[in-house]
Amino acid sequence: MTASTKARGRTADSTEHEALGDNGIATATMPAVTTEFESPNGLDLNNADPDTETTNAQARAVAVGESDISEAGTEGEAPGELDESAAVDAIVGSYPELADSLEVIIPPDERIRVTNTTVYPWRAICALGIIAANGRRFIGTGWMISPRTVVTAGHCVFLHEEGGWARSITVIPGCNDALEPFGSHVGTDLRSVTGWTSSKKREYDYGAIILPPSSRPGATTGTFGFATRTDSFLLNAALNLSGYPGDKGGRQQWFMAQRPKSVSERVITYNIDTMGGQSGSPVWVLENGQRYGVGVHTNGSSSGNSATRIASEVFNNLSNWKNLGM
Amino acid sequence: MAGVVVSVAAAPGEFLDIGMVADDQGEISLTPTGSGDYEFVVFAEGVAEHVGTHLSGAEGYVALTVPPSS
Hints:
The complex is a heterodimer. By secondary structure, chain A is of the alpha+beta class. Chain A has helices at about 85-90, 95-100, 155, 195, 220, 230-235, 310-325; strands at about 35, 55, 70, 110-115, 125-130, 135-145, 150, 160, 165, 170-175, 185, 190-195, 205-210, 225, 240-245, 255-260, 260-265, 265-270, 280-285, 290-300, 305-310.
């Protein structure tokens, strides 16, 4: 929805630098990192820690950890796995769709359709069909971090205006129009944190779906890693975002990459084009061949779209939820 | 118009980037983010169209009906 000038390709090397703007938000950008663009085609006063995990089943205590930490993902075991050069074909094959999209979104729309969603990492990104507690239906996006754990936005699992915890969420990894190459999986075991469920604070808008033991799509699709990274790293990083926008029907995966506009302690802001349905999308960096989620896309705004940043407390909760879905 | 997918394309302020699916009456629910003009993208039968409306922002929660012509 937002428009801006964007550059693709490897970031240039330079001296690391960081500057803080008003309210401690880092805004300066001096390239100094080694990330790469992908080539696809309010606090609860009764609770001292708003990152305390909450669930539609039971509450859990969570430890607080360090910063700048990583958990690696896997590429999965699905047949037909292709290399990076094959992924480039997705870009080339998608330009007709990109041209079409200029007619239905505020230009310039720089999203690219991922036409082959059976390759990693695209197959680890899932279309979500959400049935709220009151029966209303919504769409979102999620991403696998373990065989049965799907990370998404807090507002995809707990919808304050719709009765709270979702009744159920259908997870479709690698959804591609009518194709569901890795099946469709229904999750009812949901996780978020009290900073979102009780206080509805934007900074705590993240959650997860733990699929039942009979559903292990992440073992086939592969999984994203996730990591905390410093302000200076993120400001200079190539951020990748891919999800299922509603203006394309919610069953096509669309991708875009760009450096962020700014970062704060709990939020990453960027001009990557998104649309309703992309809540929960992974915001990741490709670093030395590994994909690490560094944010969970949640919000749109004319001043910049944004993600909940994977800060250390978020990291710890994701690690816990990852283990629940092993 | 059940099953139509509606997305917020523009609104005053920051909004959740979730997609809304119209119910059997063609309705979606929305929590306004402020007073001003709202733009939606309505996706139905393979076609996306932009629809605009003005909300005062005084409403805590509104239901919008997707017109049959969309």
